Amino acid sequence: MAKLPMKSRLVQLLYQQKEAWDYELIGKLLSEYGKNSDYWKWMARFWMTELSCGGIFNIVDAKADDGSRFAKGKVLYRYSISDFGKSRVEELLEA
User: Fold this and answer.
1) Cα(first)–Cα(last) distance of the chain, in Å?
2) Which of 18, 32, 56, 57 could cross-link to 52 by cystine, CB 3.0-4.6 Å?
């Protein structure tokens, strides 16, 4: 079975988990796809920003990174999936 595109899998992961920190989702995503470079880490963070701006993800919490996740002083976000996001995932799963 073919894997979903990484951005789609990111949405599916949050749909399954209901709520998660960005670093939790990114760690799982990169592990599943065998990626470990900074390029993919920052690309996944970019996708999460896009998904949030598009109304698929909601930001439910934020805190400053102490340097143990991405980089000291960067903002970490906790996301939930919006009702709109849930409906999009359910539509895609039916197809």
Assistant:
1) 15
2) 57
